[in-house]
What does this fold into?
Amino acid sequence: MSLPKISRVLADGVLIFYRYAGSPTNPTLLLLHGYPSSSFYFRNLMPLLSTKYYVVAPDYPGFGFTEVPGSRNYTYTFENLTTTVGKFLDALQISKFALYIYDFGAPIGLRLALRRPSAITALITQNGNAYEEGLGERWKVPREFWATNSPDLRAAIRAQVTDFERTKGQYVNGAVDGGARVEPEAYHLDYTLLQRPGVVDAMVDLFYDYRTNVQMYPEFQRYLRERKPPVLVAWGKNDVSFIPPGAEAFKKDVPDAEVHLVEGGHFALAGIEETFAKLILEFLEKKL
It folds into this structure.
């Protein structure tokens, strides 16, 4: 077991901050975080997986400690985030990997799978949605935003992004023991990083662009159906953003997908990393 180390690499004109653990001679497991978090989300999981895997977790542009030069004029879309993650992998010479996708990391990871289907050895989805069935009531306002891109709805999304209690709530609502196991520095760090110049605008742009992910759900599903990668679904069953029917839906395209609904909310991993590590290690031991 090894504690995560940090590093930075220049890729796609962006200085990407990332965490890694384990030996690069072992099979690689790529961890893709969600909104509004970063690789920090995986800090307690990585040592548990590092005994058998080389675990790598980058921060996307606009998230965590990745630095985007102003001269780069970065446009915040999921297509561009996917390109950046791909160039990050190329910079690290990672060509084959198991993939852990969560929240925003799901469309990034699945877009990456469409581009590099032979690179993916297994797929682990933790509240990482790819089906209409998984979109909960929380998506009502974003759906209206997608339909109109109106200034009023843009302002409503901005208000959500800048609301500390909403950021905290994503961690603690529905979590084990009422969120008592969640380390408070996680949501305080996320909220603090959201306040940096330009970041709120980037997040609002990504929420608007999320509509393109939903449009791509049939493509993601076709990839799953045709390639049938080994799939582990480990899902916080109390998530109100990505609801449990989205977890079960993976079995439509990968019938032997392993589905576990665990006691937890949207940030289900936080505080119960040992539970997830056990599921992941047992799954990969069987499938790789």
